[in-house]
Amino acid sequence: MTIAQETVGAGTLVVPALCFRGVSFRYRDDRPLALDGLDFEVGRGELLALVGGNGSGKSTLARLCNGLLAPGSGEVLVDGRSTSDLDSLWDIRSRVGLLFQDPEDQIVGASVEDDVAFGLENLGVTREEMRRRVAEVLEVVGLTGEESTEPHLLSGGQKQRLALAGVLVLEPTLLVLDEPTSMLDAAGREEVLDFVRGLTRRGVAVLMITQHMGEALVADRLLALDRGRRAYLGVARHFFSRRAFAGLPLGAPPAMALAEEVLGEADGAEPPLTEDELVDALSRPLAVGDARSAPPATGDPMSGEAEKARDAGPPADRLEAQRKCLRPGGERGAEPDGESNGERGGERPVVTLRGVSVVYNRGTSLERRGLEDVDLVISEGSITAVVGATASGKSTLLQTLAGLLKPTAGVREWSGGARPMAGEVGMVFQRPEAQLFKGTVWEDVAVAPRLRGVEGRALEARVQWAMSAVGLDVQEFGPRAPHGLSMGERRRVALAGIMSLDPGLLVLDEPGAGLDPPARRHLMELLGVWAAGGAASRRAAARGAKGARAEGEMPEDGGASRARADGAFGARTLVLSSHDMDEVAEIADRVVLLRQGRIEATGPSAHVLSDVDLLERAGLRPPLAARVARRLGARPADAVVEGSGLIEWLERRAPS
Amino acid sequence: MSGPGLTIPIGQFIPGGSPVHGLDPRTKLVATLGFAVALFAVEGWAGVGVLAAGLAGALAVAGVPAGYLWRSLRPLLFLLVLTFVIQAFSFPGEPVVALGPFSITREGLSRGGFLTLRLGLLLVSSATLTLTTAPVALTDGIEWLLGPLRRVGVPSHEIALMMTIALRFIPTLLRELDDLIKAQKARGADLSVRDPRRLADAVLPLVVPLFVLSFRRADDLAVAMTSRCYRGAVGRTRYRELRAGAGDVLASVALVVWFVAALSVGRLWGV
User: Fold this and answer.
1) b/e map of B97-133 (b: 16 or more CB within 10 Å)?
2) Chain A: nearest CA to B252, how far in angstroms?
3) Most buried among A207, A326, A343, B170, by the most CB within 10 A?
């Protein structure tokens, strides 16, 4: 297929769907070029992935494709017609379907069918034809039966499919997708990708911008941009297998990264890039030997300790030991823990739910059950991940734990009683960067402590402490305007705004949503460090060990600091929700799996996340290592959820 | 965005299969307008009583839960109380209770009560319209009713599109506002205003982010609409078709009879 595509790409007879000829563009004369002399084509039925770091010009390129922007020099041709030619502009727009990240901003109609018909109405299509085409396209995207549904009642994946339907109904020859899956969970992502692949088979050309290297691999060819210039154009696989991404702010696809962790960096030979290839590679007997002779030196800063951990005790303990060394300041090791039954022994509950149910819009036809009969104990010092498919009740559970939502039935207790102690519970909502409202970063982080009466030097110390906890330099970022920052930076500012209160229980709803993978990883590392640092400094505080300043220790500010020194709250407790099971495997001790508002399973993360069947039944995509291990014959009891666990399991399996 | 339900109560359309739900939106719009005119044209309590009885009947047929209706009107209760109090105090006549230089008069009480009742009925009638009519249908009805004014330069299509977009984004923005309220409360913000001097402290944490979000959305939406070939009303066709049925004819006749009855009752037994 690839070869055929490339022939079309270089085609002399067939007019390509999209053609950039020496295209340069700048937004303002005093700004550098956003795109610099780009040449490329997308053939009919071809899927071209467009990758690049932040500010590399990806979105500019998307807007040039249908004449929303006109090239400063050079030419953009769609089906052979120039977008600079005003006479053909509307014709071009009807041929190019453009889809952005957030489907919410592309839905115009007040109902599903009205929205799909919008483009057809604009083109003056007759009512009969509209009815036929709308019905057809809804069938294609799987929204038949939802015709009169209001868009805000759809799920995220459904909204994205609706936005796609609104574009597809115009029968475009070229589809430009700007990170179409960034707002979706794993299931929704796969659904959209499969769908896009199906379109190319029908001859639609697709240009897909993506931050996910695993997705880029699905493409026929790949175009990498670096500050507006072409850094790579060629077969998508080769970009990774020949490590052409080195030097760009892009990583390897997840399966390739895992392969390198397990097998070591392959020299010469083609590395496995996908899950299937990795399973194949590990099925060969040689692979196990490799894993043994070449322990992974990559990606595991504590491999020495991990190694030690690997040699001792039963698997669960080892995993726990390893998780400890992955956490800087991992004082957790000193805690007595009886992991076998899944509860950390001797630790007090921070919040307890007994038989809790939440019902929305009670007594109307819109009545909806958010949670049903939930029993849950969140122990002090733990990191709990709440996972589940879309609309399984994750946000409801988090807000109930944080005390922002009242249960319709059942009992809820914090360690302080029926209400949490003031400032002891902090909640960070989805996309918290939206809540920033002050002129500077410093002022915004200072909002919460100020409202609690912290002023002067104590306030300065708190802001500085909170900002450094999220990796933002006070001198550099403090005076800047939040809205001029990148999304990842704004999110960290919002996080600092809550961390500045140093809540004992921090609840985060999808903290990584919408961030690109590097920013996401960074955020998770920061959260891990924050939780662990709290354990150390708070315990030190509880022991009355003055002056023991561990990393992440809260500055003392006299009267404003709450009565915590008496040990009422020792360690920081974290509850977060996530769609990404690999991420959960990295950060969480415990996992609560929700399904339709009920708790389906709960326990140590290694136990829950290694149960591939259980997760898939709940509509989740298990961690890559767990999927691979499962396909190689591992059972949930083997508790493989991460690369190190996979290595260990492969070793154990080797002798037999 | 699988956020939980809204905590802000609003008069939201409840889908249903009642005869009231099934009426053409134009019929319901004209009926609501007619009701408003009749409400202020009738004289005396008896006439208003007839109108109120009819409205109660319509609500019963539509099957709108009383609790839901009450919740969607509760935020407006303040308006009614204020109207009543102002009327009670400001009408000259025989004093009932005196408070310093002000006094509540008998006439004031009666007038205030009458006005408040009519205002309340007006609110209930418009709530009945929005609770039983899908927003899309409502917009279509309005566009159709404004259609004749197009000749004299009223941009009926643009008005309808603006309304559609507003309707489309109200739930989105409400959800965002709801999330913002929770988020700012989680930061310890006190969003209830007790001291007018601190109004800004309560309002800015919500208004600034909401503006930023709305402008960003508006910008993206404009791009998306342009990409989908939107260029104004010219050369546009319409997907929806409004069709009035036998039920609408029947309802119209019933409405006319009802209004005339209310007016004549008012004349005959007008107090």
Assistant:
1) eeeeeebbbeebbbbbeebbbbbbbebbbebbbbbbb
2) 26
3) A207
- Residue-wise pLDDT tens digits, A307-347: 443 343 344 443 444 444 333 333 333 333 333 333 444 46
**Which ipTM score applies to this complex?**
0.73
Residues from chain A that touch B5, judged by Cβ atoms under 8 A, are: 360-361, 368, 370
Region A109-135: what's the mean pLDDT? 92
Length of chain A equals: 656
Place of tokens 């107090």: B271
Q: Considering only CA atoms, which of A463, A461, A434 is closest in space to residue A448?
A: A463
DSSP B147: G
B contact residues 150-169, partner A, Cβ 8 Å cutoff: 164-165, 167-168
What ranges make up the beta strands (E) of A117-271?
174-178, 205-209, 221-226, 229-235
Residues B193 and B126 placed together within one structural domain of the fold: no
pLDDT digits (tens, 9 = 90+) for B154-174: 888 888 888 888 878 888 888
- pLDDT given at position B11: 53
Assigned CATH topology for domain A2-241: Rossmann fold (3.40.50)
| Contact criterion met (CB < 8 Å) for B226 and A109 | no
Query: What is the model's pLDDT at position A535?
Result: 54
pLDDT (average), residues A518-539? 77
Residues with Cβ within 8 Å of residue A539, at least 6 apart in sequence: A331, A570, A571
Say if residue A20's pLDDT is above 90: yes
B131, A371, A124, A144: which is closest to A134 by C-alpha?
A144
Most confident of A116-130, A504-518, A562-576, B43-57: A116-130
Q: What is the pLDDT of residue A345?
A: 41
Give residue limits of the domains in chain A: 2-241, 252-329+624-656, 349-622
Nearest to B238 among A105, A121, A366 (CB): A121
Q: Provide the H-helix boundaries in A219-328.
A: 236-241, 254-263, 275-283, 285-293, 303-310, 315-326
**Which chain B residues contact residue A426 at CB under 8 A?**
186
Dihedral through CA A606, CA A610, CA A616, CA A620, nearest 10?
40
Which fold is adopted by the domain A349-622? Rossmann fold (3.40.50)
Assess if residue B36 is contained within a domain. yes
Q: pLDDT for A551-583, tens place per residue? A: 445 555 443 344 343 334 457 899 999 988 999
Is residue B22 located within the same domain as residue B129? Answer: yes
Q: What is the pLDDT of residue A335?
A: 38
Compare all CA atoms of chain B with the CA of A185 and give the residue at the minimum distance.
B1
Mean pLDDT, to the nearest integer, of A167-195?
84
Beta strands in A541-630 (DSSP E): 573-577, 590-595, 598-604
* Residue A433: how many other CB atoms lie within 10 Å: 21
Contact B237 A435 (CB under 8 A): no
**Helix ranges (DSSP H) in B133-155:** 135-146
Instruction: Evaluate whether A112 touches A146 at the Cβ level (below 8 Å).
Output: yes
What domain range includes position B205? 167-232
Give the chain B residue whose CA is nearest to the CA of A65.
Answer: B227
Structure tokens at B168: 């489309």
